[in-house]
Amino acid sequence: MKVGLIGVPSSAGAHGPGQEKAPSALRKAGFLGALREAGLEVEDLGDLPVARFAPDRANRKRQSQSLVVRVARQVADTVATAVERDLVPLVLGGDCTITLGVVAGLLRYQPDLGLIYFDGDADLTTPETTHSGIFDSMGVSHLIGKGDPELAHIGPRFPLIPQDRIVLFGFHPYEIEPEESRLLETSSMQRYPVTSMDHRPVELAAEARARLEERARAIAVHFDVDVMDSAEIPLADWPHYDALSFGDAMRCLSVFVGSQKLAALVVTEINPDHDPDGLLVRPFIDAFADAMRPVAANAARR
């Protein structure tokens, strides 16, 4: 199990600029070295072209659609190339819409795919229900075929992932719009809101992983850092409070990436503009690298 590191410096689908700086900031702070020190074999595949947020006044319900689609397609091609070479993609974003490209690329070779969506939001708004028109708040909707039609059709099948192959883990109900709630009520997605964890998030992470492993032959993990409490580590582009602690989030991540079926990991929503002195990025990297040790352990067993 060799990891292929891919940077996606894009804020195309975000609420504002900043996230496009994350891959560079993480690299400069020692991200690659920390992974290798944790025992991972990593090949650096470089970064895709920068795509920076800009307001799209002509498409208020579909902000920067053409740029978001272009980035997602670039990600899909790059991920597919990594999979062809037997690499497990580790994709550094960038906003949440890059996960669409990761899924689309994986599906070319791994059609029996499940997704752990480890995120502070459910991301189930649509162009019809959105207030902002921002595409990364619609990420799961695109995946299940209810979002923007062009994004929802970027992969080899439609919908990209059946709802019963998706786990929503760590989202906060107070961020859910009424239309999102109605969709969730009838959905077969597994749901683990942060408010239902009762001080046992790691145990529930193991349960969620096991349930998805029973249904899918390969598992992608989407990790949005806004699943962590921004009062503790304010790196997220869109802050969340009363969320998982930094430590609990990293322990849950370690459970998810410890799956023998791990197909890819996506890290999204880090905004280095929230850390101008670079005081938060290095502690994040150290904890993240430690959480990745099960990947190295699984590789050693093969």
Q: What's a concise summary of this model?
A:
This protein is of the alpha/beta class and 302 residues long. Helices cover 35% and strands 15% of the residues. It is built from eleven helices and eight strands.
Gap from first CA to last CA:
8 Å
Beta-sheet strand percentage?
5-15%
Radius of gyration: 17 Å
Strand order of the largest sheet: 2-1-3-8-7-4-5-6
Tell me how many strands there are. 8
Give the number of helices: 11
| Percentage of residues assigned to helices | 25-40%
Morphology: globular
Please identify the oligomeric state.
single chain
Describe the sheet with the most strands.
8 strands, parallel
Mean pLDDT: 94
The poorly predicted ranges are none
What does this entry look like structurally?
The protein has helices spanning 22-28, 31-37, 65-84, 98-107, 139-143, 149-152, 178-185, 201-213, 246-257, 281-291, 293-301; strands spanning 2-7, 42-47, 87-92, 113-118, 166-169, 190-192, 218-224, 262-268. It is an alpha/beta fold and 302 residues long. An 8-stranded parallel sheet has the order 2-1-3-8-7-4-5-6, sandwiched between helices. α2 (31-37) packs parallel to α10 (281-291), α3 packs across α4 (98-107) and α8 packs parallel to α9. It is globular, with a radius of gyration of 17 Å. The relative contact order is 0.17. The mean pLDDT is 94.
